[in-house]
């Protein structure tokens, strides 16, 4: 964990953003304190504090004085809007490049994406039914 | 009064006879930080620690702790603690008695923390230091180091004798107590990979001089490992400082000093290059290898 090329505080902030996007952290839910975060993941508390400060600046988290930090109500929508912008540039374009290099027609890639989406949706319905 | 104490060395020189241990060192250790003091054997780490803790007088220049000269400073020294691997304990007295002595001269000492850590490291209060194993001696040094809650706590290679699970217990105990009672902690260690996320600031000494002193996160991102087709790797490293290079067939890997702009990283990936992080430990090995001083100077300028 936290072995990417970005500064550790950026990686921590990214991970919390992912948790919010996936719904593992819900709006108005309290997040770990800087102290808990530092001791749980064995990282410097100042590094953790920097990550949380960035998330507060970005409107993803907000502080309740004397209580702790919480996920902002509009955080998932905000992250989805931001994610859309980078998704095509960072995720889709490299796939298209890679497919071309391997000689895979774009139609095959699209078919695969459709099949995957159908499978995932099916699994979610099964999960909801049981 | 209790507040974290920073350290500032100004033109600090220490000589042992003809041997120069520190040659005109200018460096600051920020108050309230956990700072990693790194360097190869004989680089001057222990000498710097000893001068800051007033175990030793400088030959030239000065060191200031919380803005004051620590030498024979009765008000300051109870707040400054240096724990050395050798332990500095009374060998013929029990650990319990040793703890009581330390408690008497350390105003912020927490008996509760000491007892909890004695339990955690399975140390018998009735044992005498001379009967302890190397690992147990290290553990006792750590108990004293953390429980004293000194405003400047310097831990010089204290965890060398510990096995991995005990070292992790040490890191956990240190962080837990640090967040509750902030102070300046200087951690000198050869186990850079293990402490790199604990430290906020890094000072690297080499041959009695400061190779670099900077924010740990900033240091970590100044190294990039580039892997990919040899031709593309060669193109990428042009004009950059290359710390290391490996090649296997048509694939090459280079470690370079570079803070990449977003566009540069994307261009490199488009050219089929993988960009990876360089662990602090590897950066340290490259920088302190003989003849690497130029690269270190560049790194100092780059920040």
From TrEMBL, chain A:
* Molecular function GO labels: DNA binding; DNA-binding transcription factor activity
Keyword tags: DNA-binding, Transcription, Transcription regulation
Query: By its UniProt entry, which Gene3D superfamilies does this protein fall under?
Result: Winged helix-like DNA-binding domain superfamily/Winged helix DNA-binding domain (1.10.10.10)
Keyword Transferase part of the UniProt annotation: no
Q: Which InterPro entries match?
A: Tscrpt_reg_HTH_GntR (IPR000524), WH-like_DNA-bd_sf (IPR036388), WH_DNA-bd_sf (IPR036390)
Entry superkingdom? Bacteria
> In this entry, which stretches build a coiled coil?
none
Q: Tell me which residues make up the HTH gntR-type domain.
A: 6-74
Q: What PANTHER family does the record tag this protein with?
A: GNTR-FAMILY TRANSCRIPTIONAL REGULATOR, HTH-TYPE TRANSCRIPTIONAL REPRESSOR YTRA
Protein name (database record): GntR family transcriptional regulator
Question: Organism, per UniProt?
Answer: Cellulomonas pakistanensis
Automatic annotation (TrEMBL), chain B:
SUPFAM superfamilies per the UniProt record, alphabetical: P-loop containing nucleoside triphosphate hydrolases
Q: Give the source's domain of life in one word.
A: Bacteria
* Entry keyword set: ATP-binding, Nucleotide-binding
PROSITE patterns in alphabetical order:
ABC_TRANSPORTER_2 (PS50893)
Per the database record, which ranges form the ABC transporter domain? 7-232
Looking up Gene3D superfamilies in the UniProt record yields:
P-loop containing nucleotide triphosphate hydrolases (3.40.50.300)
- Tell me one GO molecular function of this protein: ATP binding
The record's annotation in PANTHER family points to: ABC TRANSPORTER, ATP-BINDING PROTEIN (PTHR43158:SF5), SKFA PEPTIDE EXPORT ATP-BINDING PROTEIN SKFE (PTHR43158)
Q: What is this protein called?
A: ABC transporter
Organism source for this protein?
A: Cellulomonas pakistanensis
């Amino acid at each position: 964990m936290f072995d990417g090329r970005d500064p550790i505080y950026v990686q921590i902030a990214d991970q919390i953003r992912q948790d919010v996007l996936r719904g593992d952290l819900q709006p108005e839910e309290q997040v770990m304190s800087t102290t808990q975060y530092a001791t749980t993941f064995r990282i410097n508390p100042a590094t953790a504090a920097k990550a949380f400060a960035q998330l507060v600046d970005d409107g993803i988290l907000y502080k309740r004085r004397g209580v702790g930090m919480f996920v902002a109500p509009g955080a998932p929508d905000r992250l989805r809007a931001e994610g859309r912008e980078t998704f095509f540039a960072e995720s889709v374009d490299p796939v298209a490049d890679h497919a071309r290099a391997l000689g895979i027609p774009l139609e095959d890639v699209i078919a695969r994406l459709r099949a995957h989406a159908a499978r995932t949706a099916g699994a979610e319905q099964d999960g909801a039914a049981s | 009064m209790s507040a974290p104490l920073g350290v500032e060395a100004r033109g600090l020189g220490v000589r042992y006879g003809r041997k120069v241990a520190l040659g005109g060192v200018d460096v600051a250790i920020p108050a309230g930080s956990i700072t990693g003091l790194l360097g190869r054997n004989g680089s001057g780490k222990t000498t710097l620690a000893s001068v800051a803790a007033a175990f030793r007088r400088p030959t030239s220049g000065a060191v200031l702790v919380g803005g004051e000269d620590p030498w024979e400073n009765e008000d300051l020294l109870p707040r400054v603690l240096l724990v050395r691997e050798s332990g500095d304990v009374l060998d013929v007295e029990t650990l319990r008695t040793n703890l009581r002595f330390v408690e008497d001269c350390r105003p912020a000492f927490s008996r509760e923390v000491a007892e909890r850590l004695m339990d955690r490291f399975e140390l018998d209060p009735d044992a005498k230091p001379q009967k302890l194993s190397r690992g147990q001696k290290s553990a006792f040094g750590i108990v004293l180091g953390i429980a004293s809650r000194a405003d400047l706590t310097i831990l010089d290679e204290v965890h060398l004798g510990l096995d991995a699970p005990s070292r992790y217990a040490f890191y956990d105990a240190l962080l837990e107590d640090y967040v509750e009672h902030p102070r300046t902690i200087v951690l000198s260690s050869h186990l850079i990979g293990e402490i790199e996320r604990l430290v906020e600031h890094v000072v690297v000494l080499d041959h009695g001089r400061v190779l670099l002193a900077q924010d740990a996160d900033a240091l970590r991102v100044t190294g990039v490992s580039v892997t990919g087709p040899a031709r593309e790797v060669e193109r990428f490293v042009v004009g950059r400082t290359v710390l290391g290079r490996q090649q296997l067939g048509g694939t090459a890997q280079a470690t370079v000093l570079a803070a990449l702009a977003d566009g540069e990283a994307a261009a490199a990936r488009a050219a089929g290059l993988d960009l990876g992080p360089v662990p602090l430990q590897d950066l340290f090995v490259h920088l302190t290898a003989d003849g690497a001083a130029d690269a270190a100077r560049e790194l100092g300028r780059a920040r």
